[in-house]
């Protein structure tokens, strides 16, 4: 059961970020637009140079090749990237996992072209692709931003059940207070250049 630990991480204007996210725990991050939420996730995923240290259990990020680290510490950005023409080509070969019902796709979605996908379809498939890679940590950047209310609830529930089942530590960037209340075990808010426990959070 891995723990994710940040030790005095600093990136951009954000300084001194230290925390432990336990296995199966969801820590929500909020803050004004441009306050550095996405960059912090990128630092934890080793996608941007930063100060301080990040550990997965006792393994330090700096001691692992970046591509190995990113496979284990999986960031799902708000705007997902796709490289091939078809959806299925982005999934691990021989992927046996059934398509989660909560995502609302027919089985033939694997043959759909990327160009036809709506932004909400892209977002849901990016989440499914991330989980299909069996990461040990999830970093979610506004994972339901392009979804309507009912689909957001369905995707949240599916994510939470996977997070509990796989016991992944999770950093989840969110703006919607109602969503934060539903999913967060802890809620941290960016104030000036620091992360602080949000008012009303336990
Ligand atoms: N590589 C970079 N070099 C310098 N500044 C950057 C870099 N990437 C992002 N920034 C700046 O850092 C700030 C924080 O960006 P970030 O994307 O983390 O914001 P955010 O809190 O996620 O905002 P939003 O809620 O709008 O998505 C922004 O002012 C952005 O322009």
From TrEMBL:
PROSITE patterns: ABC_TRANSPORTER_2
GO molecular function terms listed in the Swiss-Prot or TrEMBL record: ATP binding; ATP hydrolysis activity
Superkingdom of this protein's organism: Bacteria
Coiled coil: none
Domain ABC transporter: 4-202
UniProt KW keywords: ATP-binding, Nucleotide-binding
InterPro entries per UniProt: AAA+_ATPase, ABC_transporter-like_ATP-bd, P-loop_NTPase
Gene3D superfamilies: P-loop containing nucleotide triphosphate hydrolases
One Pfam family from the record: ABC_tran
PANTHER family the UniProt entry points to: ABC TRANSPORT PROTEIN ATP-BINDING COMPONENT-RELATED (PTHR43119), ABC TRANSPORTER DOMAIN-CONTAINING PROTEIN (PTHR43119:SF1)
Protein name in the entry: ABC-type dipeptide/oligopeptide/nickel transport system, ATPase component
